[in-house]
Amino acid sequence: MNKAVIIPAVKKNVAFYDDLIKKMAGQSLIERAINKAKEIVEEEHIYVVTDSEEIRLFSQRKSVRHYFEKSLKLLPGIAIESLVGFMSTIADKYQTFILLSPYAPLLQSTEIQKALQAFYASETKLLIPVKKEFSRIFTGSQKDIRGVLGGESEQALLVETQSFQIISSGLIGDGLLRSLNYPLTYELDHDLIEIKSYQDWWVCEKLLNRRRIIFRVIGNVEVGMGHIQRALTLAHEITDHEICFVCEEKSRVAVAKLAGYDYWLEVYKSEEIEDQILALKPNLVVNDILDTSSDYIKRLRAHNISVINFEDMGKGAVYSNITINELYDDPTIEGENILWGQEYFFVREEFNDAKPCQFKDKVDSLLLMFGGADPSDFTRKILRMVKEDCGRKAIKVYVLTGSGYHFIEELEREIAQITNVEVEYHHSIGVVSHIMEKVQIAISSNGRTAYELAHMNIPSIVLSHHERENTHKFASEKNGHVPIGTYKEVETEEKLMQAFQHLATDTDYRRLLFDRIQPFQFVKNKKKIMNLIYSLLKH
Fold first, then answer.
1. Which of the residues 126, 157, 308, 509 has an alpha carbon 20 to 30 A from that of 144?
2. Residue 525 in domain
3. Burial of residue 444 (number of CB atoms within 10 Å: 0-12, 13-18, 19+)
4. What CATH number did the domain enclosing 510 receive?
């Protein structure tokens, strides 16, 4: 159906002086409105109604029609009544008019197109957009205190917006509006801000300057929870940009964890995930999926997408903008874009104000913690090894398992049978630093946990789940840890028990490790990583 877009742009109807021509995120309000109109109709069917010579000139340069009247003044909002006179002059050319306010810069043309479809499908002659707002209506008549203070009294209200209106030309004749049986209300399915003040302007500009960041993460029993935690820690720092998490279907642990947060989450089949990421049109992709392929990273870069990879030893590492291998101290891949070592490791927010442990002459507490999944079930194996010694030495054992741990029932049964030593067990708790604040030594896996223990000044015996984890060289005696290597039943048990006896009973040795571990503080490194992210977003 033939239609025209009419943009009322009257300088007398302003939120503040020159608001229609002031740049917002690089474009003026009138320019945004015209560009939006061009996505709906051809240039020759766009009319700017204005009292401003400057806006008239701008309209000419944008190749759209205009109606200029210096004495023009609109009633509040779009005010159809104020535009009837002009619409009457072109009513014979069009069946439908779209009145488009320039004061709704976040409104997308796709939303107007959907409204048009609803309008054409109805029998009405006028469509008015509305938005849902939740509010408590206070009448002053409530006698029950619960009615006054809240409870369940919040109501959903439909509020008319002035962002656009759609009207049939059949309602316009001889400069008058004909009678209307009923209008069609169209509920907008997203938040809409209409500029009425400087505060509205500031919010809209913030939102228009947003960039889209995709965190592609993995998380399963084999690789644990470290990738998810790192991505979440970074995402929590970002408030000015749009965040989306993307996972493969097989990363069930990651999907389950992320579902508990209020982030945009997309889950795809492995074979379609790259295409889907491109379809989301991100500005930056953060890959925390271990090794990437060169084809994948090259494909992202070819679409002008910035890329940061974490813990990447694959062929794609050299093609990213930045690859951060903070768990690997020794460079094994050449590339100026690859950053190595513990100076790039950062802890979660909960550690920012945590109190590092103070040295005690006698060990009275031990922590067992083997990551978010612990696929090898080191938790039970090590607990069986140390429980007798801990009982004799009056060492309390704290046991922590993550949300990916699948042996909860078996572990709880074993703990229930232990009588000679105090065991405190926690599964999938939101924070762990308050437990770490209570212990002197730990036995842990060789991932991010080893760094968190170092941050808390806790000398630790470190056991690797697999050979890749065993290449993490930070957990060494020079850094206050006792590395055991990968698990080999007889050899490891003997080696681990010797290390435990040494650490628990030799005060001088533990003091040496404690002094070596003290310099490591990993709070400030997060700012370093965030600066890298923001630099790529600016680029």
1. 157
2. no
3. buried
4. 3.40.50.2000
pLDDT at 213: 98
pLDDT above 70 (res 151): no
Does residue 145 share a domain with residue 243?
Answer: no
283 in a domain, yes or no? yes
CA 19 to chain centre: 32
- Decide: 223 and 38 in contact? Cβ < 8 Å: no
CA 12 to chain centre: 41
Structurally, how many domains does the chain consist of? Answer: 3
pLDDT at 313: 95
Which helix (DSSP H) or strand (DSSP E) does residue 99 occupy?
strand 96-100
Tell me, yes or no, whether 539 lies in a domain: no
Residue 138 three-state SS: coil
CA angle 234, 240, 245 (to 5 degrees): 45
**Interval 380-403 mean pLDDT:** 95
Question: Which segments of 299-362 are extended strands (E)?
Answer: 306-310, 322-325, 338-340
In terms of domains, do 55 and 200 share one? yes
Tell me the DSSP string of 198-248: HHHHHHHHHHHT--EEEEEE--BTTTBSHHHHHHHHHHHH--SSEEEEEEE
Same-domain check for residues 318 and 238: yes
Please indicate, yes or no, if residue 370 is contained in any of the structural domains.
Answer: yes
- The residue range of the domain holding 237 is 211-346
104 & 251 share domain:
no
pLDDT in tens, 287-306: 999 999 999 999 999 999 99
Write out the DSSP string of 147-179.
HHH-TT-EEEEEEE--SEEEEEGGGEETTEEPP
How far is 217 from 276, CA to CA, in rounded Å?
A: 14
Query: pLDDT band at 157, cuts 50/70/90?
Result: confident
Q: What is the pTM of this model?
A: 0.83
